Amino acid sequence: MNKKEEEKKNISAYEKAAQDGIDPRCIPQKLENPVPEHEEIIYPNYSAEEQSNWSFLYNRQMKFLPGRACEEYIEGAGKLNLSDKKIPYLKDLSHIFHNSTGWKVARVPGLIHEQNFFEMLRRKVFPSTDYIRGKEELDYTPAPDLFHDIFGHMPLLTNKSFASFYQMFGEAAMKAEGINRKYLETFHWFTVEFGLIRKPEGMRIYGAGIVSSHGEVQSALSGNVEVKEFVPENIIMQEYDVWHLQPILFAIESFEQLEQGFKEWTKKAGLA
Ligand SMILES: [Fe+2]
Question: If you count Cβ atoms within 10 Å of the first and of the last residue's Cβ in the chain, which end, N or C, has fewer?
């Protein structure tokens, strides 16, 4: 393999997408200046249409979540007071995290460079956008928006084990180089974004990419998906495609298993 091919192998899926001419909003930006965090965040002047897009997305997704999303997600959404009434204020969410798992929220302008992203996670800061997809993108948007960031990601950040895992993830990712960067990105994909959890009552969803997607929420627990056991060494080797419904997913037994399994893997990989 020549040097160019070697470099291409180690780039992230989003970097690859950018090179392949994908939507420019999916190209990560490097943050040059500090972004507003916690108390510094202001509430944008959302239009009536933007507020109605939130209500529509919230109600449509919530209809599918009982019996599909895990109880930790549902409880978390309750703790954050998410409702169809109004786009949540990032500052209010930040206060709720701060008083529970000690996290805070930062407002970011879009998809950010992974070094900025990891550094925030390491400091227990969750970077969130504060703009919402347009009417024509209600079914699908490849770019990040507040519906994905808030509705998809935030409820689980109220869970102690998940929040602890995510902070460790940021720490490990800051140390990772070469192929370990790709392994961590793959791990993130199959847990934070597309994770399933096995419960006594049946298979449930916790990944933000499933919870916030109209297509994935219906597909993830269907017979079209092959569910594999949570084995970090297998997860990091799994190929995936960011632009289609996921045919293979991994199921954890508990959030403690996710936290512990990740801790052990990072030790072996020299990232702890
Ligand atoms: Fe995400």
Answer: N
Cα dihedral sign for 176, 177, 180, 181?
positive
Cβ within 8 Å of residue 85, ≥6 positions away: 55
Report how far ligand 1's centroid is from the alpha carbon of 264 (Å): 24
Ligand 1 center–CA 51 separation, angstroms = 21
Query: Residue 137 Cα, ligand 1 centroid: separation in angstroms?
Result: 17
Give the 3-state secondary structure of residue 157. helix
Nearest to 210 by CA among 165, 250, 261: 250
pLDDT at 146 over 80: yes
pTM of the full predicted structure? 0.91
- Distances 158 to 2, 242, 272 between C-alpha atoms, Å: 46, 27, 24
Residue 209 alpha carbon to ligand 1 centre in Å: 6
Structural domain contains residue 17 = no
pLDDT (average), residues 57-74: 97
Report yes or no on 5 lying in a domain: no
Q: Alpha carbon of 190 to those of 33, 126, 142, 214: distances in Å?
A: 31, 19, 17, 18
Structural domain count, the chain: 1
The CATH number covering residue 141 comes to: 1.10.800.10
Ligand 1 centroid – CA 189 distance (Å): 8
Sign of CA dihedral 159, 162, 166, 167: positive
Spell out which residues have Cβ within 5 A of ligand 1, the ion.
208
Given a cut of 50, is residue 1 above it in pLDDT? no
Distance 1 CA to ligand 1 centre (A): 32
